[in-house]
From TrEMBL:
The lineage of its organism: Bacteria, Pseudomonadati, Pseudomonadota, Gammaproteobacteria, Chromatiales. It comes from Thiorhodococcus mannitoliphagus. The chain holds residues 786 to 1063 of 1063 of the full protein. This is cyclic-guanylate-specific phosphodiesterase. Residues 24-278 form the EAL domain.
Length: 278
């Protein structure tokens, strides 16, 4: 009986698994082609000082301009790029492009600001990462103090003591390190002391339901207070309403990023909307 059920289940699942696998392979091939054909672009989202409203930086976010599908969100291609290892060349492209853009804005006379670039676990595991980052900084000319690399808690926790060394090597280049999606990972707070971190980014899931969700308000306030005590900078992601902004300001959250203040946009739009010569 059980055997028969098993066989039934097997027969039922095979075609759909095969289809999923085929789709994955096709997507992987298209991603490879996209990288070769220069179909990826970076969008830039502004980051502001909460109190003054001054622009303090931007985050570079990858998009895929697919000839067939139009603009594809990173939620669709980053996980696969990560699995296949394609994230390494893609990540290097993103770093290089973002640094070159940051330098171009600096040369054009716009006020100095941070350029934040996301880093994947695979990239951190690459022993050549620090050398590559160093080369990109030298080749583009962007001052290392203006580069900030964003990593998630899980990336750091997964890689243990090796991560500490890699992060220290990166820090030694003069750049800043930021914990992305803070509060959603393993949340072992001990690592905050061990890792050479400069900034916490409060995950948007804690910001989204302010002021309806009192727990979220409590969590956000706690992260802000903790950052202050540990002498870390703190920025909130996903700020969509004036109420959320007011709450974060009252709590003393230094930075804010979100649709209320500016969506991720192509470089030319970013320039037009957010930059004016100093
Ligand atoms: P992330 O680094 O946490 O980036 C923040 C995400 O929140 C971005 O999504 C951004 O567009 C979105 N966001 C910003 N403000 C708001 C808001 O007010 N409301 C809402 N609902 N969303 C907001 P995006 O651009 O789709 O990127 C998703 C994720 O993909 C990023 O999360 C990051 O983990 C990853 N990613 C993007 N570009 C790269 C890249 O170049 N390299 C790597 N490794 N990962 C990347
Ligand atoms: Mg990020
Ligand atoms: Mg985030
Ligand atoms: Mg995220």
């Amino acid at each position: 009986q059980a055997k028969e059920e098993g066989r039934c289940t097997y027969r039922f699942y095979t075609p759909s698994l095969t289809r999923a696998a085929k789709e994955r392979l096709a997507l992987e091939a298209r991603l490879r082609r996209a990288l070769a054909n220069d179909e990826f672009v970076l969008y830039y989202q502004p980051q502001f000082e909460t109190d003054s409203g001054r622009l303090i930086g931007c985050e570079a976010l990858a998009r895929w301009r697919s000839p067939e599908e139009g603009l594809v969100s990173p939620a669709r291609f980053i996980p696969l790029a990560e699995e296949t290892g394609l994230i390494v060349p893609l990540g290097e492209w993103a770093l290089r492009t973002a640094c070159a853009q940051g330098m171009a804005w600096l040369k054009a006379g716009f006020p100095q600001m941070m350029m934040a670039v996301n880093l994947s676990g695979r990239q951190l595991r690459n022993p050549e990462l620090a050398n590559e980052v160093k080369a990109v900084l030298e080749q583009t000319g962007l001052p290392p103090q203006q580069l900030r690399l964003e990593l998630t808690e899980s990336i750091i926790m997964d890689q243990g003591t090796e991560a500490v060394e890699r992060l220290q090597t990166l820090k030694a280049l003069g750049l800043g390190l930021s914990i992305d999606d803070f509060g959603t990972g393993y949340s072992s707070l001990a690592y905050l002391k061990r890792f050479p971190i400069d900034e916490l980014k409060i995950d948007q899931s804690f910001v989204r339901d302010i002021p309806e969700d009192e727990n979220d308000m409590e969590i956000a306030a706690t992260i802000i207070a903790m950052a202050r005590n540990l002498k870390l900078e703190v920025i909130a992601e996903g700020v969509e309403t004036q109420e959320q902004l007011d709450f974060l300001r009252r709590q003393g959250c230094r930075g804010c990023q979100g649709y209320l203040l500016g969506r991720p946009v192509p470089a030319t739009d970013f320039e037009r909307r957010h930059l004016s010569p100093s």
